[in-house]
Write a structure and sequence with these properties.
- By secondary structure, this protein is of the alpha/beta class.
- It has two domains: 247 residues, Phosphoenolpyruvate-binding domains (TIM Barrel, Alpha-Beta Barrel); 43 residues, no CATH class.
- The protein contains twelve helices and eight strands.
- An eight-stranded parallel beta barrel has the order 1-2-3-4-5-6-7-8, surrounded by seven helices.
- The longest helix is centred in the middle third of the chain and has 17 residues.
- It is elongated.
- 36% of the residues are buried.
- The N terminus is likely disordered.
């Protein structure tokens, strides 16, 4: 009785997971299940998420892994690039996502400055994502310069997802967000780096912003999964930023983005109708209001009558 009343009176409560259309997907996603998908030729599906509510919805929809991306600096915090987000902010959002997720693998982006200074600092920060935030893996950007760090992380039992091609934390060095791997020399470097990262212990590689033909060759060369974003259809899987997918990024979509919904329009319409109802004295109505019981109301009226007398 008490629990039922508490739920009824609660300002907010989330639906039970068993109401999800994908509730039958109970087997958790793991490094091995991602590897199995590559072996079997079944596409890996991934998205970003940054909070409890969206992570829960994304997980219930049946994606294979959720990346708590440093892209939250832009789509959640409003920065111009990913560089300002801090370790503490990334840990906060990773913990929120971890609490929501039951099936998908949770991968945390290591923010700029958390692993570039020394390998020892990189390992220590990565361990915080696993120990304090509940992530199952971390993602780091870069090629040959990250080989030793990947080895150190692997030795420390911290699974590593690598990231090659257009690496947003290198935005200044690349003079903006530009497609990478457009020359034969650059292509050879990308393939060589991908193989070296695999040999160092990375369990997967994100390839971003490179020509389809290049991504296809990297994917074929690797034994581990290559997950693409802006890298064409021949990768082992795809990942997008959720806010791009549902039009919540407040910017023109990149060429590689396909929008599957318009959350901006949905939210704007809902808020406009709410404002109109409040201003028009239409909200709250009787169905949204609580009332005193008869005895309490009678007692209150008697008390008010005494005071007036």
């Amino acid at each position: 009785m008490g629990v039922a009343l508490e739920l009824t009176m609660s300002l907010t409560h989330f639906r039970s997971a068993d109401q999800s259309a994908r509730a039958t997907l109970t087997a958790p996603s793991t490094i091995q299940s991602l590897q199995d998908k590559k072996t079997q030729g079944r596409p890996i599906v991934a998205l970003t998420a940054y909070d409890y509510a969206t992570a829960r919805l994304v997980d219930e929809a049946g994606v294979d892994f959720i990346l708590v991306g440093d892209s939250l600096a832009m789509v959640v915090m409003g920065y111009d690039n990913t560089l300002p987000v801090t370790m503490d902010e990334m840990l906060l959002h990773t913990r929120a996502v971890r609490r929501a997720v039951k099936r998908a693998m949770v991968v945390a982006d290591m923010p700029f400055g958390s692993y570039q200074v020394t390998n020892a600092e990189g390992v220590a920060n990565a361990a915080r994502f696993i120990k304090e935030a509940g992530a199952q893996a971390v993602k780091i950007e870069g090629g040959a310069s990250r080989i030793d760090l990947v080895k150190r992380l692997t030795d420390a039992e911290i699974p590593v997802m690598a990231h090659l091609g257009l690496t947003p934390q290198s935005v200044h060095r690349m003079s903006g967000y530009r497609v990478q791997g457009k020359s034969v020399t650059a292509i050879h470097h990308l393939v060589k780096d991908a193989l070296a990262l695999e040999a160092a212990g990375a369990f997967a590689v994100v390839v971003e912003g490179i020509p389809t033909e290049v991504a296809q060759r990297i994917t074929a060369a690797l034994h581990i999964p290559a997950v693409g974003i802006g890298a064409g259809p021949h990768c082992d899987g795809q990942i997008l930023v959720l806010h791009d997918l549902i039009n919540l990024s407040f910017s023109a979509p990149a060429k590689f983005v396909r929008r599957y919904g318009d959350a901006a329009a949905l939210i704007t319409d809902a808020v406009n109708r709410y404002r109109n109802d409040v201003e028009g004295h239409q909200f709250p109505g009787e169905e949204e209001s609580y009332h005193l019981g008869k005895e309490a109301l009678a007692a209150l009226l008697r008390e008010e009558g005494k005071l007036k007398a």
